[in-house]
């Protein structure tokens, strides 16, 4: 039987977690699958483990790259995949029952969707700090396509190893790319820019393992400045089509960094907004700092970039009171 879902699992030195990771995926018998396990330069017993499992389960295919990095390892898996749906999985996470079936159902029910994730549970507890817990709680609260449209420029709204992609949409936007910012966020932004919907199954269907050595903590592509550059790169074409003046709400470090990245993409802020009365009348990056009451949705398009916790929702309320409509007249970017 031809697979309905190709599961892409790149790994490197994951001998201790690979078997558990595959067990959850292989337990799903209602969906015809193939598992493409890509050894990306392992020096432990992981490849031998995959070879043993593959000998007993024809759904598993063992691939090797020699060590080229996650984006190109995923490209290797994609090239070998045969199914119309592509699911992601990392070699140290745990897929929970019915994950693939529910994601296939969601993609089949809505042709506009390009990718469907799930809610996730980070573990083990000792590796989940306050910042990660807040991020996962934020991510898990974003479920519908409208939620993802609203939050896409705040942070990466999908947990990469939890997603299933519609192959047609994935290939239409250029598939996996090796970029200098996070490769998963780049993909979500490209799908969004092309008009594809992003959504989640409203259930926790992946246990997301964390440990100090993961790429998120040591790879320069995951630095905050790289996320800002990615946002600016995909915001700039949208801003170029809007005749209104660009205003950045936030004259502090967060707003200035976004304005700098936007300027590098050809989108210069005409003004900044700040609620600190001491800043009003000054300048930031050569543009005036103005009060919020000066904003007009007929004249201004606003990007909200303020780092203070809780500020985003307060600013949304302020902008709504000024007749600004989110996604039409402003985006939140932090």
UniProtKB/TrEMBL annotation:
EC number: 2.4.-.-
Keyword Signal belongs to the record: no
Residue ranges occupied by any Glycosyltransferase 2-like domain in the UniProt entry: 6-173
Gene Ontology MF term list: hexosyltransferase activity
Superkingdom in the source lineage: Bacteria
InterPro entries linked to this entry: Glyco_trans_2-like, NAD(P)-bd_dom_sf, Nucleotide-diphossugar_trans
Alphabetical list of Pfam families matching this protein: Glycos_transf_2
Presence of the UniProt keyword Transferase in the record: yes
Alphabetically ordered keywords of this record: Glycosyltransferase, Transferase
PANTHER family for this protein: GLYCOSYLTRANSFERASE, UDP-GLCNAC:BETAGAL BETA-1,3-N-ACETYLGLUCOSAMINYLTRANSFERASE-LIKE PROTEIN 1
Protein name in UniProt: Glycosyltransferase
